[in-house]
Amino acid sequence: MTILDGKQTSQNIQSEIAAEVEQIKARGEKIPHLAAILVGTDGASQTYVGSKVKACARVGFESTLITLEADCTEAELLAEVDKLNTNDEIDGFIVQLPLPNHIDEQKVIEAVNPLKDVDGFHPSNVGKMALNLPCFLPATPYGILQLLERYKVETEGKHCVVIGRSHIVGSPMSILMARNSYPGNCTVTLTHSRTRNLSEITREADILVVALGKAEFLKADMIKDGAVVVDVGITRVDDPSKERGYRIAGDVDYEQVAPKCSFITPVPGGVGPMTIASLLMNTLQAAKGKVAVHG
Ligand code: NAD
User: Which of 161, 234, 248 to mutate to test the pocket of ligand 1 (most atoms within 8 A of CB)?
Assistant: First the structure.
């Protein structure tokens, strides 16, 4: 069994990006600049945005964090989006989700200039992804593809089962793994909360991407020997033995499942760190003025 080490792989990618930024600086060209808009004071969102800003500093990017009050209006947020759309200093930007309930998330996503949409959430980028055209890929699926590629995991002709159909993970993962490219060329089954006989389907999987948000959901009797298991889940589980009172659990019962796998991602240290690396890769591509050709 091989651990797909997202922490190490993310560090490798960040070193590669940092080296490229050094070359950009040496040529006297503009340093890549990522901006993030954070609305409100949700703890998890603050942590995520904070780690993205820190990652920018590590690789030598410029970054700008714009914070808005939780009760800001949709119009105020859209005005900030518009400023970033037209500010030539900013190469790419993200609006940290989720947004407060009084703001129409889809409207905000669609207001972002697709050429600066380094989260890859704009319908224009989603459509291009489906057509295998150059675009920004959403960060978490892109990170998973990077992990599979860097560990040379075979995907062609394999049966890939994805659990969860969210717009940010499961659904794009199913599209990407079915594309005529590497990683890809899989026969894909996309499963969700209405799927019947899930275990029968997962036991047929050569590659399993588990993204449903239920701690330790996938058990050993749900997979076949030698499966590749990618665990996307991040759930806080109460744990009085920890100083902070909780631990982070994935969607996979790692202790049980890992011995049966050919490859598996741990949680933490698997998919999570790769998401940040992907955002930086997208930002670098945005700065270069051309959108990455993935596959
Ligand atoms: P979501 O809550 O938007 O969607 C969950 C999906 O799981 C839904 O499509 C639902 O139909 C499906 N589902 C629920 N119960 C199911 C069941 N019993 N059987 C089959 N399918 C079922 O989830 P999301 O935003 O994709 O996030 C999933 C998990 O991944 C969460 O734990 C989240 O925190 C984590 N996540 C991690 C990263 C990362 O960088 N590592 C990024 C995004 C999300």
Answer: 234
Task: Indicate the class that CATH gives domain 139-272.
Answer: alpha beta
Residues annotated catalytic, as ranges = 52, 96, 119
pTM of the complete model beyond 0.85: yes
Q: How far is the CA of 234 from the centre of ligand 1 (A)?
A: 9
Q: Which residues, 6+ apart, have CB-to-CB distance to 130 below 8 Å? A: 175
Q: For residue range 253-283, what is the model confidence (pLDDT) as tens digits?
A: 999 999 999 999 999 999 999 999 999 999 9
Helices vs. strands in the chain: H and E counts, helices first: 10, 11
Q: pLDDT of 97-119, one tens digit each?
A: 999 999 999 999 999 999 999 99
Domain 28-114 has CATH 2.60.120.10: no
Alpha carbon distance 118, 114 (integer Å): 8
Domain boundary assignment for the chain:
28-114, 139-272
- Atom 30 of ligand 1, residue of closest alpha carbon: 233
